[in-house]
Every structure is written in C-alpha cells, then in structure tokens.
Amino acid sequence: MPFSLGVSKRIPSLLIVADRGCLKLFRLEETPSFGRKVHLLETVRIDAAHGRYRDKFSDQAGAFPTGGTAGQGNSIGERMSMETEEETRIFRHLAVQMSSWLTEHHGAWGFAAPPEINAAILKEIDPHLRERLTSNLPSDLIHVEGPRLLQHFRAEP
C-alpha cells in the first residue's frame, strides 16, 4: 500500500526524517517575532545499518564442501535472505523509535525517507499513528536541516 498523501496546507509541527542508519526528530515552532523555526529534538543512529555486509557476517556459516570449487562453495540465496532480514530489522527498529515519539506527540506529523525505504518503514508504524501522517516525502533529507527542511515540506508534491 503506497503512503502518498495529498498536498497539505500546513506543515505539521512534528517532522521525522530517516535513512537506513539515522532518524531525526524536528519540532516546528511558530513565533510572532521570528516566524517559523525548526528545532532538532533528537537524533538516533542505527549501528546495525552501518558497515558492509561482509564485515558483519562471516562467509563460513553458509559454506559447504563441494568438489567443483576447490573445497568451498557458498549459497548466494542464503546471503540475500540474511540481508533482507537485516533490512527488515532496521526498519522495525526505526519504526519502534518513531512510534515512541508519536505516542508522546498527539498531533499531525510529517515524514521523509528515501523512496526505496519510505513505505517499508511506514508499514511498520501502528495504523492509528499512521492516520495522523499528513505529509510524506519520499526523499532523502537526512542531511537537510532548518529552513531548508521546511522548504521541502512546503513544496511537497
């Protein structure tokens, strides 16, 4: 199920930005003297998302003796399912942290994550919390902060 939403007239007061290895929580405040300000409230890094697959897992676990490859052969199918399982764990971890924030915040929220992981992360969020999602950007904005972040949400398709 895609999580594209229509254009919202107002940018929500809570913005969450994610990629595979990091999650950031921002709060939008409107002040009479300074206008809109974005405050970074929290950053969470997912250690499991960093590093290369081969550095985290040994090839020996899936190795089996075979006569055709001079002693060892590895099943590529096992590696793919382990990588997929690791991705799913990371998305769940991101969703658990997001759910914790969203449970404390009872209003509308906005979310941005790269297109290839956006829906996978949102799928792990409780539907009741997901109902309050008013802005969803399939964009990698993890390194964008402050007024530039607001510009992306304002220009939401």
Concise synopsis of the structure shown:
The chain is of the alpha/beta class and 157 residues long. It is built from 5 helices and 7 strands, in the order βββαββαβααβα. The chain is globular, with a radius of gyration of 20 Å.
What brief labels describe this structure?
alpha/beta, 5-stranded mixed β-sheet, two-stranded antiparallel ribbon, disordered N terminus, 157 residues, Nucleotidyltransferase, domain 5
Descriptive report:
The chain is built from five helices and seven strands. The chain is an alpha/beta fold and 157 residues long. The protein has one domain: 2-Layer Sandwich (Nucleotidyltransferase, domain 5), CATH 3.30.420. The protein has a five-stranded mixed beta sheet with strand order 3-2-1-6-7, with helices on both faces. A two-stranded antiparallel ribbon has the order 4-5. Strand 1 and strand 2 form a beta hairpin. It is globular. The model is unreliable at 1-8 (pLDDT under 50).
